[in-house]
Amino acid sequence: MSAGGISLRVRRGVDGIVYAVSLAAVVFVIGTVLCLPLGWGWTGVKYWLFFLGLLLFGIGTLKLRPRAAWKDYDTDGGEEKPETESRFEQATRTALPDDLAVRHDERWSGGARVFLSSLAVLGASMAMEFVFGVGG
After folding, report:
1. Second label for 111, Cα 20 to 30 Å away, from 16, 21, 43, 61?
2. 3-35 pLDDT, tens per residue?
3. What is the DSSP string of 74-128?
4. How many Cβ atoms are within 10 Å of 68's Cβ, its own excluded?
5. What is the pTM of this model?
């Protein structure tokens, strides 16, 4: 348990959901800025979300694969370098309250967060079609 009494598992889940929703919102805004001025309308935004969601799904799936045991990743005899935190990851981490924030080394893997983000983007595309009736 953390100092606030919230378990690491819950904090990781909240962090992953915030990351996924934030990435889906950024993808939606970029799609809106690109598609509406070009005359593609909301149908273009829906297709943008669908195709980018599929791309993120593939990237997340590939990043989730385990490393091959036979490959030698550590050639210099030292420890592997930890992943560096991107600005987007830092922004999503600092957007959470201190009792929910997760240290960079305690977060879900990048593959898991990208995979969860792909589900959020594809869910937004589905919502545009089935809930809001954006056709095409």
Report:
1. 43
2. 567 899 999 999 999 999 999 999 999 999 999
3. --SSSPPPPPPPPHHHHHHHHTS-TTT---GGGSPPHHHHHHHHHHHHHHHHHHH
4. 8
5. 0.84
